[in-house]
Design brief:
The complex is a heterodimer of chains A (about 200) and B (about 375). With about 200 residues, chain A is α/β, with parallel strands linked by helices. Chain A has six helices and five strands; from the N terminus they run E-H-E-E-H-E-H-E-H-H-H. In chain A, helix 5 packs across helix 6. The longest helix of chain A is centred in the C-terminal third of the chain and has 46 residues. With about 375 residues, chain B is of the alpha/beta class. Chain B is built from twelve helices and 15 strands. Classes of the chains: A alpha/beta (about 200), B alpha/beta (about 375).
Amino acid sequence: MQSAISCIDLRDVDCAVVYPRDRDGELLIRSVQRIGGRVVNIWPPAETLEQSIDLLFCALEPAALTLLRLATTRAGLAVVGIVDTAKNDHLELLKIATPHALLARPLEAHAVPGQVLLALNNARFQARQQSKIAKLEDTLRSYRKVEQAKAILMSRRKIGEPEAYGYLREQAMRRRVSIGVLATAIVDASEMLSEEQVE
Amino acid sequence: MSSEPWRVGVLFSQTGVTAVIEETQLRGTLLAIEEINATGGVNGRPIMPIIYDPGSDCRRFALLADKMLAEDGLNTIFGCYTSSSRKAVLPVVERRNGLLWYPTLYEGFEYSPNIIYTGAAPNQNSVELVDFLVENHGPRLYLIGSDYIYPRESNRIIRELLRQRCGKVVGEHYLDLGAKPSEFRLLMRDVRNAHPDVIFSTVVGQATAYLYQAYAEAGFDPRQMPIASLTTSEAEVKMMGADVGRGHITAASYFQSVASASNDAFVRRYKKRFGNDEPTNLCVEAAYFQVHVFAKALAEVNTLHTEVLRPIVLHCEFDAPQGHVAIDSESSHTNLWTRLGRVNEHGQFDLIRESAQAVMPDPYLVSH
């Protein structure tokens, strides 16, 4: 069995700690450094975040909400929220911020690695699923383009459906592009040509 | 430099209804691993297979895959035959970012960034087969399948392809994976009444033999009304007997009878290792070449981490027994050869048609 710490490798991870530099802030920075990550400290919360950041620790406070919202739109960025359960609005803030993992104040050093692992795993899984969905949506779009390209070929060349499909397949193979790319080119070219005729 | 073995998971059933064909995939996997280890392994490290028997049970497939990735510290799994087992393992490898190598033809319409598909998609076998059947035997098909995902999905595609060719489905029946010979005998009466030009079989496992035997007992003639299939390989023909299988048609990327030096050598090594009366088949071959593709990619990156290994895999090519193949980076599927064969008196396939080169996979049939 590997030790808990060696499961996490932060050597290639850029980390931002958006937290006041008090006792808890210092503890966070030291914990991340101990597992090999590079850390920058930001306080008060900025409204933007460097592209290179992979792991964000952020206080769940109203002042940080803009940053937290921005973070949810960036695929692969792992977010660990730091919550003050003594405050009444902490559940409300959690709902809005949707971090991948959570630490509660006062922080304890031994709790940090586990939440880092959780946040990285969750963020990476979400990113993989998102890229899978993007790919599938791409396939759906190329379906539509192929149908359009097929219709164009059938009417221009006075050929049937199987021949139109055959032509698309053969040309795509020959040019070493996907059918979707070829179909898009045909549809675009056809639109351009018919616009020229109108002019 | 480390000499620790590369540990990989191997997940094929050695018991249960699809054990006969899955065991051939296990053998293909082991043969390739032994070949690689005999020449010094990958970057000086041998490949060590961790083998479990899921017993043809989808839940066990998912549980064992999870155990491999979560507890055994593995990243790569070679495995799965049925589509239901692959569908059970898919969420597991996606969640844990593993890489499943799936060496079986299937019904297409799937993409996972965590699966490398090395068996045929429908455009690589079904399309050519339906063309051939309609041209040479007639447009009336009777569909018989085992009752699970693959046969039903595959037949949905066959129906569509038939419609484009003005063909017709004149019967459609699904029998349990564990169906008895008597159920197939009964079904032959309905076939006789329906007068199809072709029986299209998506029956898999042990029941395959029962279908062809019931057909022979009913006195049908394969020259008049052949059984066509994507899954009846040399292994199933051996189960039913060459006299029973003779004259029937299968579409596959690979037959043992493929004439090439690399296939001759492959068949010779396989028989030497597993016995002279053990034929190779499409599933053995895919299981075999995918391990070599894996080893090639692994040699380049020297790590099993999926996010590092996969991009290299997606550009791998290999001289497989079926011919030159390449992983398609768009779809995670494989450029494979299309072949049609007819069973001869030796239980081998005589080639009817063959593509001029490997055919690009089109798992969503975007271009059909």
